[in-house]
Amino acid sequence: MSYRLKAITREEHLAFVGTRPSVSHMQIPAWGDVKPDWRAQSLGWFDGDGRLVGAGLVLLRPLPKLKRYLAYLPEGPVIDWAAADLEQWLEPMLAHLKGQGAFSVKMGPPVVARRWSAEAVKAAIADPAARRLRDVEATAHEPRAFDIADRLRRMGWQQTEPGGEDGFAAGQPRYVFQVSYAGRTLEEVQRDFNQQWRRNIKKADKSGVKVVEGGYEELTAFYDLYVETAERDRFIPRPLSYFQRMWNVLRAEDENRMRLYLAHHEGDILAAATMLTVGAHVWYSYGASTSRKREVQPNNAIQWRMMCDAHELGASVYDFRGITDTLEEDNHLLGLLRFKSGTGGEAVEYLGEWDFPLNKVLHKALDLYMCRR
């Protein structure tokens, strides 16, 4: 089957997203408004009967002084990745984006390749011979993912290698941690938590930690903690305006799209976090905390409240987002992997991000620029 691809309206795009059980928050129309430095466009795939059967949010970033663009579909597009005619889905997209002036296309197929249970992750961390999660035997493999990867390579797509010593790619994380809610009560979900997690939730409650939802005005309190967290965990913080824009545009699309939570204790705000929801998929998006009063366990308290609310919203999965691929003790991100795996979920590897150079000279120049950053 051949597919016709064209630009679609935000309304058409949002209606299509509403028919899917899980779509990345980076593949909804409002996400384009979160990224004002990019020009956003909603694309739609139509079958022979004129039905909208696929959609994608593409972000176009201009090259300085040139009317040429990097086209980026983060965690997308939303198409039938298992289709035997995958070429018929992707070739019209490349042709359309080339016509828009794109010199290179980057996408992140929402296709799971492997999964590791919490027990397997725990054993890997304890094994001195295990250096990276990717080299540890997975609990489950998704055979179709490797077939899709082979087909993409034959079509000329190039896989982006997991970047940096911590295993995070330059774009979106290839490795995430998720807790499945499908057909499970909250009691069953908590039963899979390790002893430390259950103990910390009880300790936070007994210590008087109160987790509340915040509004736009509380974003400044979140941001103060976020800047402290950035300094402690050695990353460059986004500006406050980024989170204010996120709040405004995402909640304008759906009031449950973004929520803010704050953990209070005796007049102090000790932790804060944002939660995003699209359909039955809920993400822990950004987290922040102070180094003070850690003994009252505000981070466990805030996550448990968010997990409870996600369950109430009808989530099928609670997604902790990115985890490190490295298992070495001296890596500062290993503690975050231990924290997330304590919930008894599973580490998940996606296919990662893929590039298609439409202009090899400009694509190579971009590669060199990114390597020097």
UniProtKB/TrEMBL annotation:
Record InterPro entries: Acyl_CoA_acyltransferase (IPR016181), FEMABX (IPR003447), PG_Glycine_Bridge_Synth (IPR050644)
Organism: Streptomyces fuscus
Pfam short name (any one): FemAB
PROSITE patterns reported for this sequence: FEMABX
Species lineage: Bacteria, Bacillati, Actinomycetota, Actinomycetes, Kitasatosporales
Keywords carried by this UniProt record: Acyltransferase, Cell shape, Cell wall biogenesis/degradation, Peptidoglycan synthesis, Transferase
Protein name: Peptidoglycan bridge formation glycyltransferase FemA/FemB family protein
Listed Gene3D superfamilies: 3.40.630.30
Family assignment from sequence similarity: Belongs to the FemABX family.
